[in-house]
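Entry 14. Ran structure prediction on the chain below.
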Amino acid sequence: MRFAVNAPPFAEPAALVDLGVATERAGWDAFFLWDHMVVDRNGVAIVDPWVVLGAVAARTDRIRLGTCVTPLARRRPEKVARETATLDRLSSGRLVLGVGLGHPAEEYTTFGDSADLPVLAARNDESLAVLTGLWSGEPFEHDGTWFHVERVRFLPTPAQRPRPPVWIACALPSRRAIARAARWDGIVPIHIGSHGVEFLEPGDIDSIVREVGRRRGSLDGFDVVVNPGPPPSASVAEFESAGATWWMTSMDGFPGWVDVLRGIVDAGPPR
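Output, structure tokens:
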């Protein structure tokens, strides 16, 4: 099991950079940021994750860095390709790209875009195809429903070859997202119940692992990320036994959250 900190971008950039540096110092394995544009039209201060992660990369040597998650359906894949290749090279190959459909709907509707989930899923899949094609550094062209790319070589490539790992966010009980994740390098599942987001149990992870294994034929090189909630719904050992490979500590952006999360970070991962 490896241990990650996943922070909301609702703070001053310097405070988030300090949090990322503290994450490495305290022995964690990764530092991720949420990727948001709008979470409340009345105004919530949000900073850009890629700028912050670039600063964290320059001040760390070991931890994995990335977004968890970036809604590709509201991004231009060529811009994401440029940002991620730059961060991967700056960090000497430490990027992990988490991808999801995005939440809330205002992320899209505020700027005149559709928040229809089938549309977002289709744009997400096509954007991933374009992104990985550009990452390859080989001549690439694409003529799809949402994106058109004339033949181009996109350089430099990411430091990681053949590409950085891609994790797919999955809102259970949807099985389509699990199928999508099985085609990539990892899954970040949450459970949507009658009362909203619910934290996962080891049995949920076991079920996901079995389905992904059936679809892939092997779990080699595939990561399963669990956010067990505060307090955790089960022990590290129980989740690891169920097949989780990453334990993610996160926090909602309530007032004073930075200091609370910093205390958790400084205490070190729950090994």
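DSSP finds nine helices and eleven strands in the chain. Will compare against last week's run tomorrow.
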